[in-house]
Design brief:
589 residues; 10% helix; mainly beta; disordered N terminus; six-stranded mixed sheet
Length: 589
Amino acid sequence: MSDLINVSRRGLIRGLGAGAALAAAPAWAQGHSIKHRSGGVIRPGFDQVSGEVINLAVRAGTRTVQGRRGHGVAVNGSVPGPLVRLREGQNVRIEVTNHLDEDTSIHWHGLLLPFQFDGVPGVSFPGIKPHQTFTYEFPVRQSGTYWYHSHSGLQEQTGHYGPLVIDPAAGEPMQVKRDYILLLSEFTPLHPHFIMQRLRTGEHYFNRQLPTWTDKYPMSGEERRMWAQMRMSPTDIADVSAPTYTYLANGRGPHEGMEYLFTPGDKVRLRLINGGAMTYFNVRIPGLAMTVIAADGQNVRPVEVDELQIAVGETYDVVVEPRGAEAYAIVCESMDRSGMALAMLTSRPGARAEVPALRDPPLLTMADMGMNHGPARGAMDHGAMDHGEHQAAKDTSHSMDGMSMRDTSLLPPDVTVGPGIDMVSMAPVDKMDDPGLGLRDVKHRVLNYRMLSALEPNADTREPSRLLEIHLTGNMERYMWSFDGKMFNAVSDVPIRFAWKERVRVKLVNNTMMAHPIHLHGMFFELVNGQPPAHQPRKNIVTVQPGASATFDLTANEPGDWAFHCHLLYHMHGGMMQIVTVMGPEDKA
C-alpha cells in the first residue's frame, strides 16, 4: 500500500499513454456531454449500506419532484444515494459499478485516504468507464459526518451524491436519543450543460430578483446609479436559484412531507449536509435553539445559535431538544431567499408547524465589493448605520467612476491579468466573524467561523514556515472563474506544491463579489479564526466572503495529488480549480 501512496498522478496518467490520458480527463475538460439512456424511475430518500464490503451502482433515470420531471443520475436507485455507514478503525472495500454510457466517479468528501482512491478523474485516477467496476479500498481513519458525490462532468447536479457517517471507535462525546441526517440539495428539470451554457452567455439568466423600475429594494436613486455605473448588480448573490431550482431535504421538495419524529425532551442530533450544486442555505428552527457540536465532521466545543449558514459542501452537526410544541419547522432558505428546503420535527406523524414566509432578499453592499468603510451590514441598512458610516458610504458612492473596482495594479505580480478578471477588491480584510449574506442584521444568534473551537487539541501547532497567498478571481459576465487569474486545465496544470509535513499558512483573497466555498481534498486545515493554535477548528471547506479574505494553517502530511477548488459546481466547471501536490516522505523537495 505504501508503494501505491507514492505513485504520482502524472506517473499514473503517463502510464496510460497519450490517448488514454486525454480520455482520462473529466468530461467537463473534454468539452462535451454524452446523452444518458433512461434506467427507470429514481426514488427520493435513501437506504443504508455498511460492512467490510459495500456495493454501489450508478444508473441514469427519471426524477419527479413536486410534479416536475427531469433527468437524474442515482446511486442504488435513489437520490440521495444510500447512507454509507462506517466505523472508525475498520477497513472497507467499496465496489462501484457504472451503468451509465459515460464515465463516472465517486469522491469521498472529507475522508483521509490514499490519493488514488479520492475519486477525481484526471487528477487521482482515470475515472470509472461505462459498464465497468472500480474498487475503492482504504482504512477508515476518522469519524464524523461526511458525504460523497460524483466528480465527473456535472453529474452532481443531477443527483449523484449521498451521505456518509463514520461512528467513532471510542463512542460519541455527546449522547443523543435520536440521530438524523438532513441532506440539502436542489432539483431542476434542466440539463446541467444547458444551465452552464446559459451562464456563459448571460450570467443573470437565472436571476429573477434583478432590480427594476418598480422594485421595493431599500436603495436610493444615488445608490442605484452607483451600481449601474459599476455595471454590477446588488442582487448578484446566487447564479442559479428558484424557480429554476426546487430545494430539497433528503431528496424531497418543501411540499413533499419530509419529517423527523421526536418525543418531547429528547436530544435530537441533526447531521446537516449541504450536497447542493450552487446553493448556500440559511438554516433555522423557529422556537428552537441549535447547539453546534461538529463542523466538517470534526468535533467542536458546543456553541448555541439560532441560525447558521451552511456553504455548499459543508457539514454541521447540531443538537436540539424539542419540547413544548407538537411540531417545529426546519427552515432552510436559499441565501438569496428565492426559495427554501423544508422538513418538520414532529411528535406524531403528520403534525405540522407554521412555516414562516420567505424573508426579504438581501443586497450586496460596498463592503462586499472590498471597500471596507465599516462593518459588514445587511441590504444597505442605513437605519442600522451610524452617521459616520452612512457618510462614508455616501462618499464611496460619489467617488465611483466605474473603473476603480477594476484596478489590476492592486493585484500581486503572480496573478495573471487578462479577460478572466473583471473585478479587483480594493481593500480585502479578514471576515471570519461574518455570518453570511442576509444574516448580518438579524436579531437572533447566528453562527460565524470565529465562534468555532476544536474540541480535541490539534496535533500540530507549529508556526507556519511560509505564507502562500491565493487570489480568487473571475469575470462574472463571461462566467470565467480562476485562482490567481489562471483557469484550471486538467491536462497541463501547474500544481501548488508542498513539501512533506511542511507547515504552511494559506491566505485566500476574494476579488469577486460572490462568496466562494473553497474545498481542499485529502486533508484538514485549521482556520486562523482567533482561537489558540491548539484549538483552531479543523475544516476542509472555508467560505471566503465577497471582497474579503480568509486564512488557514495546513500541515502537508497526506502525500499525493489533491484537488483544490470552489465547491460551487459551475464555478469549478468554469475554471476555479487547481491541484495541490504533497511530496512523499522519500521524495526530494
